UniProtKB/TrEMBL annotation, chains A, B:
It comes from the Bacteria. It comes from Hymenobacter mucosus. Keywords: Hydrolase, Magnesium. Its cofactor is Mg(2+). SUPFAM superfamilies: ComB-like. HAMAP family: ComB (MF_00490). This is Probable 2-phosphosulfolactate phosphatase. Coiled coil: none annotated. It catalyses: (2R)-O-phospho-3-sulfolactate + H2O = (2R)-3-sulfolactate + phosphate.
Length: 238, 238
């Protein structure tokens, strides 16, 4: 039976063997939630960048550019990191490619490249990711982007929610991280947004737009698609 | 108000600023539980070693030697890593110094040396550690030894239990790790041993002696002493 493990920080990834496994990279607030939303709104693909300047330079090649630093849209780019940037129609996104850089999510994607598949996970596409993993029948490692390398609640809750969806067809009891995430998910699942209001990260983003984003980002199964990171691009899995 | 943060793995310690703070190093199964027990039974001090051979060599200098690798007593030493080694009278320990090496705990101690004080924490001395921290009035970082660098439930539960004891005089809400540990502690506290039976680490040690150790190691407030790591030695704080 394939297993589900959870890596709470990209800094811990060297301890995990990703070879032959599926890595599910998650940065609920907000990188992976926005990537899923972007593809659902007709963005053709995304190119994640670790650094801001190379990302910004992609505008000259016809890309839309999206970037945040410390939770705020960076200067000189088309979009921030809010999923609503792909929904509100201010910047037309359908048919465009997007170069994106974020504080935590991009780093987690690049560090996961050794996996057989690197999937972009969010609550927004939770069911689609679970179905993809059931089809793959490979061991799963959920890679939490965290907050500047540290443990964060929202990515952990996603890990717990995914493990809960995959049980009992997957082994969710051989990793203490997965056991903890399942218990935290049980405590939070009846009101995820309410639970996250106590999170240090969410309180750090304590303003109206951030709360609106957070409430959107914890909605489950809004989009039925699975983005994968392959050859430097995030595309919808065939 | 001083704060309580929790570092789930020594691998994450570079992200934490220990300067001016108190580090509480914890390796419930079983290094720090055994260290507390050793000092309570009259061991004068302990010298933690990262490597087995230098530890074993300390026998020539009159030390008792204690070592485990992968949960089993190492060859050619006096004691393993069970707290009962200091309790069962087979090896007289009163008045002796002990050279000790363990898989995870020693590493966590050495990596925490930048802190103002490095305290050895366990459920066995939970109340004494909490009282010491209240007297210090400094920010606290609980350093979980983990299992080979990975997250483990028992050390996390200790972090939650300590945070619960320190609230409301300490800020226990500014770190997602502390919030998670508090929720896990709430789920586990009515039956800690029962809760840990599901832990991957505990099941790995699934034999009679290990269960006896585990049930002892989760008992709270058995010993009223606070070991500190100072100048390479673990001694009882004056």
């Amino acid at each position: 039976m394939p297993s589900v493990d959870i890596c709470f920080s990209p800094e811990l990834l060297p301890l995990y063997n990703l070879q032959g496994r599926v890595a599910v990279v998650v940065d609920i607030l907000r990188a992976t939630s926005s990537m899923v939303t972007a593809l659902a709104q007709g963005v053709t693909y995304l190119v994640p960048h670790s650094e801001l300047d190379p990302c910004r330079a992609m505008a000259a090649e016809g890309y839309l550019t999206a970037a945040e630093r410390d939770g705020v849209q960076a200067d000189g780019v088309d979009l921030g990191n809010s999923p609503f940037g792909y929904l509100d129609g201010v910047v037309p996104v359908r048919g465009r490619a997007v170069a994106i850089t974020t504080t935590n999510g991009t780093r987690a994607l690049h560090l996961s490249a050794a996996a057989e598949h690197v999937v972009v996970g969010a609550f927004l596409n939770l069911g689609a990711v679970a179905e993809f993993l059931r089809q793959q029948q490979r061991d799963v490692v959920v890679v939490c982007a965290g907050w500047k390398g540290m443990f964060c609640l929202e990515d952990t809750l996603f890990g717990g929610a995914l493990a809960a969806r995959l049980a009992p067809g997957f082994d969710t009891t051989s990793s203490d991280a997965t056991l903890a995430a399942l218990d935290l998910w049980q405590a939070a699942s009846s009101n995820v947004a309410g639970y996250l209001l106590k999170s240090a990260h969410v309180r750090r983003l304590n303003h109206l737009e951030a709360h609106k984003d957070m409430e959107f980002c914890v909605r489950q199964d809004v989009y039925d698609l699975v983005p994968v990171f392959r050859n430097g691009k995030i595309i919808v899995a065939q």
